[in-house]
Amino acid sequence: MANNQRYSNALHITVTAPRDVLSGEPVQVGQINGVAQTSAKSGEKVTIWLDASWDIEVTGALATEGLPVYITSAGKLDASATGNKPWGVALSTKTAAAAPAEVVPLGYATPAAPAA
């Protein structure tokens, strides 16, 4: 049996906080998307969960379940792709006002293919 395994499923991991984060906030580090379980200052280690669904504030309308949700450079969730990066999927609907929505993070996202 291999003895160099770090995590059995790698769904609850520790990463370096890309900014100051509070417990319950969305986090993106490269292609890793999750929700902070602890608060951390930028550059400190923070535990994030890449699975489960979460009630997190999203700006913009989510007309149907299953729509993509994006993260802004400030670490906030948004329904618009413009200037933002993919972060997760909506499991609920909501109007355009900033309000909580049930979302699930992408976990480990596959990088987009380079443009031809």
Automatic annotation (TrEMBL):
Q: Which InterPro entries match?
A: Phage_VT1-Sakai_H0018 (IPR011231)
**Which Pfam family, giving just one, matches this sequence?**
Phage_cement_2
Q: What is this protein called?
A: DUF2190 family protein
Q: Which organism encodes this protein?
A: Paeniglutamicibacter gangotriensis
Instruction: List the taxonomic lineage.
Output: Bacteria, Bacillati, Actinomycetota, Actinomycetes, Micrococcales
